[in-house]
Amino acid sequence: MPEQKDLYELGETPPLGHVPKQMYASLIRQERFGQPKDAFAVEVVDVPEVGPKEVLVWVMAAGVNYNNVWSALGYPVNVIAARNKAGEPEDFHIGGSDASGVVWVVGSEVQNCKVGDEVVLSCGYWDEDAPDVQAGVDPMMSASNKIWGYETNYGSFAQFTRVKHFQVHPKPKQLTWEAAGAYMLVGATAYRMLCGWPPHVVQEGDPVLVWGATGGLGVMATQIVKAKGGVPIAVVSDESKFEMCYQLGAKGVINRRDPAFTHWGRLPDVDDAEAFAAWAKGARAFGAKFWEVLGERKSPRIVFEHPGEATVPTSVFMADNGGMVVICAGTSGFNADVDLRYLWMRQKRLQGSHFANTEQCAALNEMVAAGQVDPVLSQVFPFTGVGDAHQLMHDNAHPAGNMSILVNATTEGETTLDVS
Ligand SMILES: NC(=O)c1ccc[n+]([C@@H]2O[C@H](COP(=O)([O-])OP(=O)(O)OC[C@H]3O[C@@H](n4cnc5c(N)ncnc54)[C@H](OP(=O)(O)O)[C@@H]3O)[C@@H](O)[C@H]2O)c1
After folding, report:
1. Are 59 and 160 in the same domain?
2. Which partner for 182 in 63, 297, 382, 411 could form a disulfide, CB atoms 3.0-4.6 Å apart?
Protein backbone atom coordinates (compact mmCIF):
# COMPACT_ATOMS: atom_id res chain seq x y z
CA MET A 1 0.00 0.00 0.00
CA PRO A 2 1.54 3.35 -0.99
CA GLU A 3 2.18 5.95 1.69
CA GLN A 4 -0.39 8.70 2.42
CA LYS A 5 1.19 12.09 1.78
CA ASP A 6 0.09 15.70 1.37
CA LEU A 7 1.63 16.03 -2.13
CA TYR A 8 2.70 13.42 -4.68
CA GLU A 9 5.36 13.83 -7.31
CA LEU A 10 4.37 13.09 -10.91
CA GLY A 11 4.79 9.37 -11.39
CA GLU A 12 3.77 8.53 -7.82
CA THR A 13 0.24 7.23 -7.21
CA PRO A 14 -1.60 7.78 -3.92
CA PRO A 15 -3.62 4.92 -2.40
CA LEU A 16 -6.89 4.71 -4.34
CA GLY A 17 -9.31 7.25 -2.88
CA HIS A 18 -6.74 9.05 -0.71
CA VAL A 19 -6.84 12.78 -1.48
CA PRO A 20 -3.64 14.69 -0.73
CA LYS A 21 -3.91 18.26 0.49
CA GLN A 22 -2.12 19.69 -2.52
CA MET A 23 -1.39 18.94 -6.17
CA TYR A 24 0.72 20.12 -9.09
CA ALA A 25 -1.10 22.21 -11.70
CA SER A 26 0.06 23.92 -14.90
CA LEU A 27 -1.86 27.13 -14.47
CA ILE A 28 -2.36 30.61 -15.87
CA ARG A 29 -2.20 33.87 -13.90
CA GLN A 30 -3.32 37.28 -15.15
CA GLU A 31 0.20 38.74 -14.88
CA ARG A 32 1.37 36.05 -17.34
CA PHE A 33 -1.37 36.64 -19.98
CA GLY A 34 0.14 36.67 -23.47
CA GLN A 35 1.98 34.13 -25.56
CA PRO A 36 0.90 30.65 -24.38
CA LYS A 37 4.50 29.43 -23.93
CA ASP A 38 4.91 32.02 -21.12
CA ALA A 39 1.37 32.04 -19.73
CA PHE A 40 1.40 28.55 -18.18
CA ALA A 41 3.61 27.57 -15.21
CA VAL A 42 3.66 24.53 -12.94
CA GLU A 43 2.69 25.49 -9.38
CA VAL A 44 1.40 23.72 -6.26
CA VAL A 45 -2.21 24.46 -5.25
CA ASP A 46 -4.81 22.93 -2.93
CA VAL A 47 -6.87 20.02 -4.26
CA PRO A 48 -10.48 21.23 -4.66
CA GLU A 49 -13.31 19.71 -2.62
CA VAL A 50 -16.22 17.97 -4.36
CA GLY A 51 -19.93 18.57 -3.88
CA PRO A 52 -22.69 15.92 -3.69
CA LYS A 53 -23.08 15.57 -7.48
CA GLU A 54 -19.40 16.03 -8.31
CA VAL A 55 -16.51 13.69 -9.01
CA LEU A 56 -12.77 14.09 -8.35
CA VAL A 57 -10.67 12.43 -11.05
CA TRP A 58 -6.95 11.51 -10.91
CA VAL A 59 -5.87 12.83 -14.30
CA MET A 60 -3.71 10.49 -16.38
CA ALA A 61 -3.59 12.59 -19.57
CA ALA A 62 -5.12 15.86 -20.75
CA GLY A 63 -6.06 17.00 -24.25
CA VAL A 64 -5.01 20.29 -25.82
CA ASN A 65 -7.69 22.52 -27.32
CA TYR A 66 -7.87 25.97 -28.80
CA ASN A 67 -9.95 27.33 -25.89
CA ASN A 68 -6.93 27.52 -23.59
CA VAL A 69 -5.00 29.42 -26.24
CA TRP A 70 -7.69 32.06 -25.67
CA SER A 71 -7.35 31.69 -21.85
CA ALA A 72 -3.59 32.20 -22.09
CA LEU A 73 -4.03 35.32 -24.20
CA GLY A 74 -6.65 36.72 -21.83
CA TYR A 75 -8.67 37.43 -24.99
CA PRO A 76 -11.50 37.76 -25.94
CA VAL A 77 -12.40 37.03 -22.30
CA ASN A 78 -10.29 37.31 -19.16
CA VAL A 79 -11.60 34.08 -17.63
CA ILE A 80 -10.04 34.76 -14.22
CA ALA A 81 -11.54 38.24 -13.87
CA ALA A 82 -14.90 36.95 -15.10
CA ARG A 83 -14.97 34.29 -12.37
CA ASN A 84 -13.74 36.69 -9.68
CA LYS A 85 -16.60 39.02 -10.67
CA ALA A 86 -19.01 36.10 -10.21
CA GLY A 87 -17.69 35.55 -6.67
CA GLU A 88 -15.05 32.83 -7.11
CA PRO A 89 -11.92 33.65 -5.08
CA GLU A 90 -9.16 31.86 -7.05
CA ASP A 91 -6.66 34.21 -8.75
CA PHE A 92 -5.51 31.50 -11.18
CA HIS A 93 -6.96 29.44 -14.03
CA ILE A 94 -6.42 25.70 -14.29
CA GLY A 95 -7.42 25.03 -17.87
CA GLY A 96 -7.85 21.77 -19.72
CA SER A 97 -11.18 20.60 -21.19
CA ASP A 98 -10.30 17.02 -22.10
CA ALA A 99 -8.95 14.23 -19.90
CA SER A 100 -8.62 10.57 -19.25
CA GLY A 101 -8.16 9.34 -15.70
CA VAL A 102 -9.38 7.36 -12.71
CA VAL A 103 -12.37 8.24 -10.52
CA TRP A 104 -10.88 9.05 -7.09
CA VAL A 105 -13.79 10.49 -5.08
CA VAL A 106 -17.53 10.57 -5.78
CA GLY A 107 -20.01 12.92 -4.12
CA SER A 108 -22.79 11.50 -1.97
CA GLU A 109 -25.42 11.66 -4.77
CA VAL A 110 -23.31 10.30 -7.64
CA GLN A 111 -24.62 7.05 -9.09
CA ASN A 112 -23.18 6.73 -12.61
CA CYS A 113 -19.58 5.92 -11.64
CA LYS A 114 -17.55 4.61 -8.72
CA VAL A 115 -14.07 5.02 -7.26
CA GLY A 116 -11.52 3.21 -9.43
CA ASP A 117 -13.43 3.53 -12.74
CA GLU A 118 -11.23 4.39 -15.74
CA VAL A 119 -12.93 7.26 -17.53
CA VAL A 120 -12.82 10.06 -20.07
CA LEU A 121 -14.37 13.45 -19.37
CA SER A 122 -16.60 15.70 -21.45
CA CYS A 123 -16.52 19.46 -21.04
CA GLY A 124 -20.22 20.43 -21.14
CA TYR A 125 -21.04 21.84 -17.68
CA TRP A 126 -24.43 23.11 -16.52
CA ASP A 127 -26.65 23.39 -13.47
CA GLU A 128 -29.02 20.41 -13.44
CA ASP A 129 -31.33 22.37 -11.15
CA ALA A 130 -31.51 25.44 -13.41
CA PRO A 131 -35.13 26.25 -14.33
CA ASP A 132 -34.47 25.87 -18.08
CA VAL A 133 -32.77 22.46 -17.65
CA GLN A 134 -35.59 21.34 -15.36
CA ALA A 135 -38.05 22.46 -18.05
CA GLY A 136 -36.38 20.11 -20.51
CA VAL A 137 -34.24 22.44 -22.64
CA ASP A 138 -31.12 20.91 -24.22
CA PRO A 139 -28.62 21.67 -21.41
CA MET A 140 -26.12 23.02 -23.97
CA MET A 141 -28.68 25.82 -24.47
CA SER A 142 -29.18 26.43 -20.76
CA ALA A 143 -28.33 29.88 -19.41
CA SER A 144 -26.21 27.98 -16.88
CA ASN A 145 -24.07 26.30 -19.54
CA LYS A 146 -20.28 26.60 -19.33
CA ILE A 147 -17.24 24.81 -20.71
CA TRP A 148 -15.32 22.99 -17.99
CA GLY A 149 -11.61 23.87 -17.98
CA TYR A 150 -12.24 27.14 -19.83
CA GLU A 151 -15.13 28.96 -18.19
CA THR A 152 -14.71 26.87 -15.03
CA ASN A 153 -11.60 26.42 -12.93
CA TYR A 154 -9.96 23.11 -11.99
CA GLY A 155 -9.67 21.69 -15.51
CA SER A 156 -7.40 18.83 -16.50
CA PHE A 157 -3.94 20.45 -16.50
CA ALA A 158 -3.48 19.29 -12.90
CA GLN A 159 -3.09 16.05 -10.98
CA PHE A 160 -6.76 16.17 -9.92
CA THR A 161 -9.72 17.67 -11.73
CA ARG A 162 -13.23 18.32 -10.48
CA VAL A 163 -16.23 17.58 -12.71
CA LYS A 164 -19.98 17.05 -12.48
CA HIS A 165 -21.14 13.43 -12.59
CA PHE A 166 -22.65 13.70 -16.09
CA GLN A 167 -19.23 14.63 -17.54
CA VAL A 168 -17.90 11.13 -16.79
CA HIS A 169 -17.87 8.48 -19.56
CA PRO A 170 -16.23 5.04 -19.75
CA LYS A 171 -12.73 5.07 -21.21
CA PRO A 172 -12.50 3.02 -24.44
CA LYS A 173 -10.37 0.13 -23.19
CA GLN A 174 -8.16 -0.18 -26.27
CA LEU A 175 -6.86 3.40 -26.03
CA THR A 176 -3.75 4.60 -24.26
CA TRP A 177 -4.27 7.28 -21.62
CA GLU A 178 -2.86 9.94 -23.94
CA ALA A 179 -5.12 8.99 -26.86
CA ALA A 180 -8.15 8.71 -24.57
CA GLY A 181 -7.50 12.20 -23.24
CA ALA A 182 -7.37 13.81 -26.67
CA TYR A 183 -10.66 13.39 -28.55
CA MET A 184 -13.84 14.15 -26.59
CA LEU A 185 -14.02 17.93 -26.97
CA VAL A 186 -13.45 18.03 -30.71
CA GLY A 187 -15.21 14.69 -31.34
CA ALA A 188 -18.44 15.50 -29.54
CA THR A 189 -18.48 19.03 -30.98
CA ALA A 190 -18.20 17.60 -34.49
CA TYR A 191 -20.83 14.97 -33.68
CA ARG A 192 -23.41 17.57 -32.62
CA MET A 193 -22.64 19.71 -35.68
CA LEU A 194 -23.14 16.78 -38.04
CA CYS A 195 -25.84 14.79 -36.26
CA GLY A 196 -27.57 17.21 -33.89
CA TRP A 197 -29.48 19.58 -36.17
CA PRO A 198 -32.25 17.64 -37.91
CA PRO A 199 -33.22 17.41 -40.68
CA HIS A 200 -29.61 18.31 -41.57
CA VAL A 201 -28.03 15.19 -40.13
CA VAL A 202 -25.46 13.42 -42.30
CA GLN A 203 -27.16 10.83 -44.44
CA GLU A 204 -25.98 8.22 -46.90
CA GLY A 205 -24.41 9.90 -49.92
CA ASP A 206 -24.49 13.49 -48.56
CA PRO A 207 -21.50 15.56 -49.71
CA VAL A 208 -20.08 17.45 -46.72
CA LEU A 209 -17.46 20.20 -47.00
CA VAL A 210 -15.01 20.07 -44.06
CA TRP A 211 -12.77 23.09 -43.46
CA GLY A 212 -9.44 22.49 -41.67
CA ALA A 213 -9.82 18.74 -42.22
CA THR A 214 -6.55 17.78 -40.52
CA GLY A 215 -7.16 20.04 -37.52
CA GLY A 216 -8.64 18.85 -34.23
CA LEU A 217 -12.27 19.30 -35.27
CA GLY A 218 -11.64 18.41 -38.89
CA VAL A 219 -10.18 14.95 -38.29
CA MET A 220 -13.22 14.09 -36.22
CA ALA A 221 -15.70 15.53 -38.72
CA THR A 222 -14.15 13.71 -41.66
CA GLN A 223 -14.31 10.35 -39.86
CA ILE A 224 -17.87 10.90 -38.57
CA VAL A 225 -19.16 11.87 -42.03
CA LYS A 226 -17.54 8.79 -43.52
CA ALA A 227 -18.87 6.48 -40.76
CA LYS A 228 -22.40 7.83 -41.30
CA GLY A 229 -22.24 7.12 -45.02
CA GLY A 230 -21.69 10.71 -46.13
CA VAL A 231 -19.01 11.89 -48.57
CA PRO A 232 -16.42 14.14 -46.89
CA ILE A 233 -14.64 16.68 -49.07
CA ALA A 234 -11.68 18.05 -47.13
CA VAL A 235 -10.12 21.52 -47.32
CA VAL A 236 -6.54 22.10 -46.12
CA SER A 237 -3.78 24.63 -46.72
CA ASP A 238 -1.01 22.37 -47.98
CA GLU A 239 -0.71 19.36 -50.25
CA SER A 240 1.38 17.59 -47.63
CA LYS A 241 -1.90 17.14 -45.71
CA PHE A 242 -3.77 15.47 -48.60
CA GLU A 243 -2.72 11.89 -47.81
CA MET A 244 -3.96 12.15 -44.24
CA CYS A 245 -7.35 13.42 -45.46
CA TYR A 246 -7.73 10.39 -47.72
CA GLN A 247 -6.74 8.08 -44.87
CA LEU A 248 -9.44 9.63 -42.69
CA GLY A 249 -12.01 8.90 -45.38
CA ALA A 250 -12.19 12.02 -47.56
CA LYS A 251 -13.29 11.39 -51.12
CA GLY A 252 -11.59 14.54 -52.36
CA VAL A 253 -9.28 17.25 -51.02
CA ILE A 254 -8.95 20.94 -51.92
CA ASN A 255 -5.92 23.14 -51.22
CA ARG A 256 -7.33 26.50 -50.10
CA ARG A 257 -4.02 28.17 -51.04
CA ASP A 258 -4.60 27.38 -54.74
CA PRO A 259 -3.93 30.74 -56.51
CA ALA A 260 -7.33 30.49 -58.27
CA PHE A 261 -8.99 31.25 -54.92
CA THR A 262 -8.55 34.94 -54.31
CA HIS A 263 -11.76 35.63 -52.48
CA TRP A 264 -11.13 34.85 -48.79
CA GLY A 265 -12.29 37.14 -46.02
CA ARG A 266 -15.03 39.70 -45.91
CA LEU A 267 -17.34 40.34 -48.86
CA PRO A 268 -16.82 43.45 -50.98
CA ASP A 269 -19.63 45.96 -51.21
CA VAL A 270 -22.30 44.41 -53.44
CA ASP A 271 -22.63 47.74 -55.29
CA ASP A 272 -18.94 47.64 -56.26
CA ALA A 273 -19.55 45.57 -59.40
CA GLU A 274 -15.88 45.07 -60.23
CA ALA A 275 -14.83 43.94 -56.76
CA PHE A 276 -17.89 41.76 -56.43
CA ALA A 277 -17.23 40.09 -59.79
CA ALA A 278 -13.67 39.32 -58.65
CA TRP A 279 -15.03 37.80 -55.43
CA ALA A 280 -17.57 35.70 -57.34
CA LYS A 281 -14.86 34.49 -59.72
CA GLY A 282 -12.82 33.09 -56.81
CA ALA A 283 -15.88 31.57 -55.16
CA ARG A 284 -17.00 29.92 -58.40
CA ALA A 285 -13.50 28.51 -58.94
CA PHE A 286 -13.70 27.01 -55.46
CA GLY A 287 -17.16 25.57 -56.25
CA ALA A 288 -15.88 24.07 -59.51
CA LYS A 289 -13.00 22.46 -57.63
CA PHE A 290 -15.47 20.98 -55.16
CA TRP A 291 -17.44 19.34 -58.01
CA GLU A 292 -14.20 18.16 -59.61
CA VAL A 293 -12.89 16.37 -56.51
CA LEU A 294 -16.36 15.05 -55.63
CA GLY A 295 -16.69 13.65 -59.14
CA GLU A 296 -20.20 15.06 -59.74
CA ARG A 297 -22.05 18.38 -59.84
CA LYS A 298 -23.51 18.21 -56.34
CA SER A 299 -23.15 20.90 -53.70
CA PRO A 300 -22.55 20.17 -50.01
CA ARG A 301 -25.71 19.45 -48.02
CA ILE A 302 -23.72 20.39 -44.92
CA VAL A 303 -20.75 22.75 -44.64
CA PHE A 304 -18.69 22.15 -41.47
CA GLU A 305 -17.57 25.68 -40.50
CA HIS A 306 -15.17 27.01 -37.88
CA PRO A 307 -12.58 29.34 -39.55
CA GLY A 308 -15.29 32.04 -39.57
CA GLU A 309 -14.55 35.42 -41.15
CA ALA A 310 -12.16 34.03 -43.78
CA THR A 311 -14.53 31.37 -45.05
CA VAL A 312 -18.18 32.02 -44.09
CA PRO A 313 -19.05 33.93 -47.30
CA THR A 314 -17.73 30.96 -49.30
CA SER A 315 -19.52 28.45 -47.06
CA VAL A 316 -22.88 30.18 -47.54
CA PHE A 317 -22.26 30.36 -51.29
CA MET A 318 -21.26 26.66 -51.40
CA ALA A 319 -24.12 25.07 -49.40
CA ASP A 320 -26.69 23.31 -51.54
CA ASN A 321 -30.23 24.66 -51.93
CA GLY A 322 -31.88 23.89 -48.59
CA GLY A 323 -28.48 22.93 -47.14
CA MET A 324 -26.86 23.99 -43.87
CA VAL A 325 -23.72 25.82 -42.83
CA VAL A 326 -23.09 24.72 -39.25
CA ILE A 327 -20.53 26.79 -37.33
CA CYS A 328 -18.87 26.48 -33.92
CA ALA A 329 -16.05 29.06 -34.05
CA GLY A 330 -14.51 32.07 -35.74
CA THR A 331 -10.80 31.29 -35.56
CA SER A 332 -9.89 33.76 -38.32
CA GLY A 333 -12.21 36.51 -37.08
CA PHE A 334 -15.74 37.14 -35.87
CA ASN A 335 -17.05 39.63 -38.45
CA ALA A 336 -18.26 37.17 -41.04
CA ASP A 337 -20.36 38.51 -43.92
CA VAL A 338 -23.39 36.67 -45.26
CA ASP A 339 -24.75 37.49 -48.68
CA LEU A 340 -28.37 37.22 -47.62
CA ARG A 341 -29.53 36.74 -51.22
CA TYR A 342 -28.05 33.24 -51.23
CA LEU A 343 -29.43 32.53 -47.79
CA TRP A 344 -33.07 33.29 -48.48
CA MET A 345 -33.42 32.61 -52.20
CA ARG A 346 -31.79 29.19 -51.87
CA GLN A 347 -33.34 28.65 -48.43
CA LYS A 348 -30.09 27.79 -46.70
CA ARG A 349 -29.60 27.46 -42.97
CA LEU A 350 -26.80 29.08 -40.95
CA GLN A 351 -26.70 27.17 -37.68
CA GLY A 352 -24.59 27.92 -34.60
CA SER A 353 -23.45 24.91 -32.60
CA HIS A 354 -21.53 24.60 -29.34
CA PHE A 355 -19.97 21.45 -27.84
CA ALA A 356 -22.52 18.68 -27.12
CA ASN A 357 -25.07 17.35 -24.65
CA THR A 358 -24.58 14.17 -22.61
CA GLU A 359 -26.29 11.88 -25.14
CA GLN A 360 -24.19 13.26 -28.00
CA CYS A 361 -20.97 12.77 -25.97
CA ALA A 362 -22.01 9.19 -25.23
CA ALA A 363 -22.80 8.52 -28.91
CA LEU A 364 -19.41 9.84 -30.01
CA ASN A 365 -17.70 7.86 -27.25
CA GLU A 366 -19.37 4.68 -28.55
CA MET A 367 -18.10 5.40 -32.06
CA VAL A 368 -14.58 5.71 -30.61
CA ALA A 369 -14.94 2.56 -28.50
CA ALA A 370 -16.17 0.70 -31.61
CA GLY A 371 -13.13 1.84 -33.58
CA GLN A 372 -15.19 3.92 -36.08
CA VAL A 373 -13.51 7.14 -34.98
CA ASP A 374 -9.81 7.33 -34.09
CA PRO A 375 -8.57 10.10 -31.76
CA VAL A 376 -5.82 10.89 -34.32
CA LEU A 377 -3.28 11.53 -31.60
CA SER A 378 -0.42 13.61 -32.94
CA GLN A 379 2.16 14.83 -30.45
CA VAL A 380 2.42 13.94 -26.76
CA PHE A 381 3.98 16.43 -24.31
CA PRO A 382 5.26 16.07 -20.74
CA PHE A 383 3.45 17.98 -17.99
CA THR A 384 5.93 20.84 -18.33
CA GLY A 385 4.98 21.18 -22.02
CA VAL A 386 1.43 22.58 -21.63
CA GLY A 387 2.55 26.07 -22.73
CA ASP A 388 4.60 24.76 -25.66
CA ALA A 389 1.68 22.70 -26.98
CA HIS A 390 -0.65 25.71 -26.83
CA GLN A 391 1.97 27.92 -28.46
CA LEU A 392 2.15 25.54 -31.43
CA MET A 393 -1.63 25.67 -31.73
CA HIS A 394 -1.64 29.46 -31.45
CA ASP A 395 0.89 29.66 -34.29
CA ASN A 396 -1.07 27.09 -36.41
CA ALA A 397 2.23 25.15 -36.40
CA HIS A 398 0.91 22.12 -34.50
CA PRO A 399 0.93 18.69 -36.10
CA ALA A 400 -2.24 17.40 -37.73
CA GLY A 401 -4.69 15.75 -35.34
CA ASN A 402 -4.93 16.15 -31.57
CA MET A 403 -2.20 16.78 -29.00
CA SER A 404 -2.09 15.34 -25.50
CA ILE A 405 -0.27 16.06 -22.23
CA LEU A 406 0.93 13.32 -19.89
CA VAL A 407 -0.14 14.28 -16.38
CA ASN A 408 0.00 11.40 -13.88
CA ALA A 409 0.81 8.98 -16.69
CA THR A 410 4.53 9.51 -17.11
CA THR A 411 5.23 7.14 -19.98
CA GLU A 412 3.39 6.75 -23.25
CA GLY A 413 1.55 3.59 -24.23
CA GLU A 414 -0.15 2.66 -20.94
CA THR A 415 -3.85 1.76 -21.14
CA THR A 416 -4.70 1.14 -17.49
CA LEU A 417 -3.58 2.13 -13.96
CA ASP A 418 -2.80 -0.53 -11.38
CA VAL A 419 -4.26 0.85 -8.15
CA SER A 420 -4.21 -2.43 -6.18
N1 LIG B 1 -17.73 25.84 -29.93
C2 LIG B 1 -17.17 24.67 -29.69
O3 LIG B 1 -17.79 23.82 -29.06
C4 LIG B 1 -15.80 24.40 -30.20
C5 LIG B 1 -15.25 23.11 -30.02
C6 LIG B 1 -13.98 22.84 -30.52
C7 LIG B 1 -13.25 23.84 -31.14
N8 LIG B 1 -13.79 25.09 -31.26
C9 LIG B 1 -13.05 26.16 -31.94
O10 LIG B 1 -12.88 25.72 -33.28
C11 LIG B 1 -11.70 26.28 -33.83
C12 LIG B 1 -10.87 25.15 -34.46
O13 LIG B 1 -10.51 24.21 -33.46
P14 LIG B 1 -9.53 23.00 -33.82
O15 LIG B 1 -9.29 22.26 -32.56
O16 LIG B 1 -10.04 22.29 -34.99
O17 LIG B 1 -8.23 23.83 -34.20
P18 LIG B 1 -7.01 23.41 -35.11
O19 LIG B 1 -6.52 22.04 -34.75
O20 LIG B 1 -6.09 24.56 -35.06
O21 LIG B 1 -7.61 23.28 -36.58
C22 LIG B 1 -8.19 24.38 -37.25
C23 LIG B 1 -7.86 24.27 -38.72
O24 LIG B 1 -8.51 25.36 -39.38
C25 LIG B 1 -7.78 25.66 -40.54
N26 LIG B 1 -7.71 27.10 -40.71
C27 LIG B 1 -7.02 27.98 -39.95
N28 LIG B 1 -7.16 29.21 -40.45
C29 LIG B 1 -7.94 29.09 -41.56
C30 LIG B 1 -8.44 30.02 -42.50
N31 LIG B 1 -8.13 31.32 -42.44
N32 LIG B 1 -9.21 29.55 -43.50
C33 LIG B 1 -9.53 28.23 -43.58
N34 LIG B 1 -9.08 27.32 -42.72
C35 LIG B 1 -8.31 27.75 -41.71
C36 LIG B 1 -6.37 25.08 -40.40
O37 LIG B 1 -6.21 24.08 -41.41
P38 LIG B 1 -5.49 24.41 -42.81
O39 LIG B 1 -4.46 25.47 -42.52
O40 LIG B 1 -4.91 23.10 -43.22
O41 LIG B 1 -6.59 24.86 -43.72
C42 LIG B 1 -6.39 24.40 -39.04
O43 LIG B 1 -5.79 23.13 -39.07
C44 LIG B 1 -11.01 27.01 -32.67
O45 LIG B 1 -11.30 28.39 -32.76
C46 LIG B 1 -11.65 26.40 -31.43
O47 LIG B 1 -11.62 27.29 -30.34
C48 LIG B 1 -15.05 25.37 -30.83
Report:
1. yes
2. 63
